[in-house]
Design brief:
Layout lengths: L1 H12 L1 H37 L6 E5 L6 H4 L8 E7 L6 E6 L6 E8 L16 E4 L1 H7 L6 E6 L8 E10 L9 E5 H11 L24 E6 L5 H12 L2 E4 L1 H43 L1 H9 L4 H4 L1 H33 L14 H27 L3 H7 L2
Parallel strand pairs: 4-8, 5-7
Antiparallel strand pairs: 1-9, 1-10, 2-9, 3-4, 3-6, 5-8, 6-7
Helix pairs in contact: 1-10, 2-7, 2-10, 7-11, 8-12, 10-11
């Protein structure tokens, strides 16, 4: 389009005003981008630190209670639950552990687990005869993935010990489980409880006791993981209402962090709104004054037969070109500020965490918003162009 070519040519020849308008936009955009990036970086680091502990999403029932499958099964259908397993009674969840034929024995807490447990490393398999062990227990017994171990229990009223062989399918990182812990399928814990309840377990060499087929399972509680942080508090409340029992979870820490995120977003939104008003006003005045200076040029172009509607695009093209140049410079300046800000203010963040983060979606939205704001500001100048009377303008020129 001829008008666009003329507008860009005139913009380049009038570089002082191009640089002035660009400086205005960059001066507003860079601080906003830095604030947004730092907010994203710090909040992401805090969320990452919280999510590094699988227990953040965990909900445990507390207190003495007794649940049946009929009580627990409906909860398995709740979409906000990522993982659920029943728990046996607390007095039965400790076993002695040793490496197969090993000389050392250590007591360990047996925790019900299974496929999908967030505590497990990716790809770890918890099934019949497969368990995961905590890092501390692995060090104590010199265990590693693939090692064979034995879970040993002795009840006062049982003539024989219960010995359960198992294979280590994963060694948990230190932050995943504290102390000596074994994650085992719930069926293993249910079997241990049946042993303490004096049921016969012929498959394990225990032939004396009550008939196992007569046993009616009862659970002390459940171990649940929420699907995401936003749903943790609501899920905890719903479980307490459904099962009429008290629960424990890190809801207070999670809600405090989510509240901080909301407050930061609100502060960022208010700052951006005020900056938008100021920038919009500055651009309206800048583009309007630019059109006023070029009235003679625009009137001459109009006399060449260019329709007023096309002529109105003259300031819009120049404004959009200025905005695109400003965006490029602003994002480049922000990228250069990032490493410097990390060195100056990144103390306390994880080593691989960036202090300044702007997501591609956010960058695209910012670019579109700036272009839209610039076009709206230029529309006022375009309106003044349409009102030009070439004959009057040229007659009044000295």
């Amino acid at each position: 389009m001829i008008v666009a070519e003329l507008a860009l040519t005139a913009l380049w020849k009038d570089r002082f005003f191009l640089l002035a308008n660009t400086a205005i936009m960059v001066g507003v955009l860079v601080p906003l981008l830095v604030l947004l990036g730092v907010k994203n970086g710090v909040y992401s680091a805090l969320i990452g630190e919280l999510m590094a502990d699988p227990a953040t999403l965990q909900i445990d029932t507390a207190g003495n209670a007794s649940f049946s499958d009929a009580d627990i099964d409906p909860l398995r259908q709740w979409p906000e639950i990522a993982f659920l397993t029943p728990k046996i009674r607390g007095q039965f969840d400790y076993m002695n552990v040793r490496a197969k034929d090993g000389p050392r024995i250590r007591p360990a807490l047996i925790v019900p687990s299974g496929t999908g447990d967030p505590t497990l490393p990716e790809g770890a398999l918890i099934a019949a005869g497969k368990v995961a062990v905590s890092a501390q227990l692995a060090r104590q017994l010199d265990l590693e993935t693939g090692a064979e171990l034995q879970l040993i229990s002795q009840a006062e009223n049982r003539p024989r010990q219960l010995v359960l062989p198992a294979t280590v399918s994963a060694v948990l990182p230190d932050e995943a489980a504290a102390g000596a812990v074994i994650l085992a399928p719930f069926e293993t814990l249910d079997l241990i409880e049946a042993f303490y309840e004096s049921y016969a377990l012929p498959d394990h060499g225990i032939t004396h006791g009550r008939d196992l087929t007569e046993r009616v399972p009862a659970y002390e509680g459940i171990r649940v993981y929420a699907r995401d942080l936003d749903g943790l508090a609501e899920l905890q409340s719903r479980i307490e209402t459904e099962l009429s029992i008290r629960t424990t979870a890190r809801t207070r820490d999670v809600e405090a962090l989510l509240g901080l995120g909301r407050n930061l977003n609100l502060a960022m939104s208010l700052t951006a709104a005020l900056a938008t008003i100021g920038l919009g006003a500055a651009l309206v005045l800048a583009f309007w004054s630019d059109v006023a200076r070029k009235r003679g040029v625009l009137a001459t172009i109009a006399l060449l037969g260019v329709p007023s509607l096309q002529l109105a695009l003259f300031p819009v093209v120049q404004a959009l070109a200025t905005a695109m140049l400003s965006l490029v410079l602003a994002f480049a300046a922000t990228a250069m500020v990032g490493p410097l800000a990390r060195r100056l203010f990144g103390q306390g963040l994880p080593e691989d965490a960036a202090l300044l983060i702007i997501a591609p979606v956010q960058a695209a939205f910012i670019a579109l918003a700036v272009l839209a704001l610039t076009a709206c500001a230029a529309a006022v100048a375009a309106w003044s162009v349409q009102r030009l009377d070439p004959a009057v303008v040229l007659r009044d020129m000295p």
